[in-house]
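Checked the freezer inventory, then went back to the computational side. Two predictions to log before the end of the day. The first one is the construct we discussed on Monday; recording sequence and tokens without edits.
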Amino acid sequence: MMFNRQAFSLLGTSLMLLVAPSLQAAPSENQWQAFSTAAVTNHILPRYQALADSSASLSQATQQFCKQPTEQGLAQAKQDFHNTMAAWQGIQHVQFGPVEILMRNFSLQFWPDKKNLGGKQLAGLLNNEDPASLSDERFRAASVAIKGLPAMERLLFADDALNQFQNHPFRCQLTVTVADYIAGMGRDIRHEWQQYADEFKQIDGEGYYEDTTEAVTDLLKAMVEPVEVVRDMKILRPLGKSEQRAKPRRSESWRSERSLDNMIINLQALHELYRTGGDNSPYNLLKLEGASEQAERIEQRFQSLISQLKAVPAPLYRSVKTPEHYQQLRQISVDLKAQTNDMEAAMKPLNIQLGFNSRDGD
């Protein structure tokens, strides 16, 4: 009788081992294909369209403003800058595809600028006042530090900006040139992504990706890695080692006072990508793989992080010097680290290996 019970127990265990993999098999190719298509169609393309539209408006606003610099015209240009930076922050996490070509990602936003290259090179341009430096050929060959949104921010949000624009026509010419360059990048990236999108919608090994898993890996890296960027670059850098040693001007977009807005938009975009695809979203696929608790923890933490950031008073460069809010930001950084760990761990039940982290070695 003892032998029979043991045999029955062993048989049951064997059957469980045989059945378990089928109950928690990795997401199918059809499921990943559905997620890829949804991510490109509903998440990436609309966000690049928003960048193209807002940067075109910024270009038009600076041209109009520079015909006759007024307080109202400057206010409109600043608002269009905010709209363009918001659009960029909403798609900043996608660091693959057309945005990589010709270093457009760095041209759009060269940050952090640890050696103040943007400030030095902009000052050089403004001091020389050489119209030839703004020609299409010369400007295309110029440093990425003076072509994008940080350069535009320095120009529009400088102290006494209106007076400087009114008394230094070359400053207006430079601002129009930078805005036009940003708009051109936005337009080109949107156009090229409309073609690049096909790489995700019909993956047959003949295009850029060998298989669906390879394409999905790019999308999931764009969802996971930026959480660490928000923590390390956008919070911990300005926090420094202590409240007394905080570095407010290390904050992203501190001149335009939108550092907190940037981070909120970043996390909202990542949260949306996590839920993109309905039944085939990463959130739902984790549940199907038996990782419901993990899926819910990531979901709830996204919501909590966004709420916590909204509760920090703007601008960030003041909050990092306030004891209460300094500790508030420290806690957010702890929660961001936990979110990174959970999201990286979530790749195991999804049978995805993210591989090389583009930030390794930073």
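The second is the one RB wanted added to the comparison set:
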Amino acid sequence: MTSSPGFYLVSLGCPKNLVDSEGMATLLRRAGYLPADRPEEADLLIVNTCGFIAPAREESQAVLRELAQARRRGQKIIAAGCYAQRSPDELAAAIPGLDGLLGTRRWMEIVSLARRLVPTPPHVAEGRGEVLRAAVQGSSAYLKVADGCRRSCAFCAIPLIKGTAVSRPLEAILADARRLAERGVQEIILIAQDTSDYGFDLGLRDGLALLLDELVAAVPQVPWIRVMYAFPGRVTAHLIETLARHPQILPYIDIPLQHAHPAVLRRMRRPSDVEEMRRTIRRLRAALPDVAIRTTFLVGFPGETEEEFQTLLDFVAEMEFDRAGVFTYSHEDGTPAYALPDDVPEEVKAERRERLMELQQGISLRKNQALIGRRLDVLVEGVGDGLSVGRSYRDAPEIDGLVLVPTELPVGEIVPVRITAALEYDLVGELAAGRGRRQRAPASPQ
């Protein structure tokens, strides 16, 4: 009997890409393909690429090139994902010998493409069932609620790659959440290009708030629910009330603001009412006193003057965000901003990013120091050499900080930790008395 072929899959880019990668892997396993731990063990090599900005495309090319150069006779290579969707000809020219391209809107066709390249044995029957639109990592899971984006931000290529926003049916999301709960997942992280736009295309008003109400009822056994990628101006009073009402929903929200000078925001085609941004943040902090607010800023956008950048610095110093990512503008062909002159020198972009990050580091350190002596519940994600590493409600996976505890704790459990020291991004603590709460645990005195 002929053995089943194997596949090796690399996922690049954001968690939304990771969900699609998990979907492809599920379909391949059902079709009789076996996952391989190393590329040399596989018959099919797949890279789910990122094509958002130039550095991401360069990384995708590098990974594909490395696999192509090392592949043995008979191995086939597929480039999937955003880069394959956005610039298939460019990618094919950069990596001679690619055997297949599969864009973001066609990832569910991976099996038919794979069978043309590496057929499965005749005795293998394809499995059936819905594909989970989530990616499980340890005790956490990214759950995709929509794909695409209907915004027209001048710098962003997502609508070119993904198309307009398409929300998943509410029942499909809840069904996936129940399956995740059955697996013992401790944290569900809602993701989309814009989670706060969920349900607009379905005719729902305040669809994210409705989804959260339904989700809490559907999976009461999941201790943590986290919301990522909310659009400025879409964090409504109803949404804030919903976040505050449910202990399962972590007091954490990610609102990518991108800038704080109205003229820059208008050029970016972003909401430019900075006073409304301030009001939204005040409402969040009033309703959720322990809320951790994460944001993202883009420096060096065409026409950004030193005065406009100083306005951004002043805004960040004033608002004191818990977390902030800072990126330099990338001039992307096909985006509305491409018609503007890329007139901020690269060295100025880098210098501005460094100044803003330095400011944010000081804010982050002060906020972390304020937690010393307080108790946080921590989801333990790894242990070794007498040390445990985990995250509190203030920390989304991979992009925020960690909590370090100098003892080995059970992985996958939420435990109470008293904070004893603070670093710029991470915290250090010791196991506290009592048990970790199954639901939201805002910072509180020991």
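For RB: Residues 438-446 have pLDDT under 50 and may be disordered. The first strand starts at residue 6 and ends at 11. Let me know if you want it refolded.
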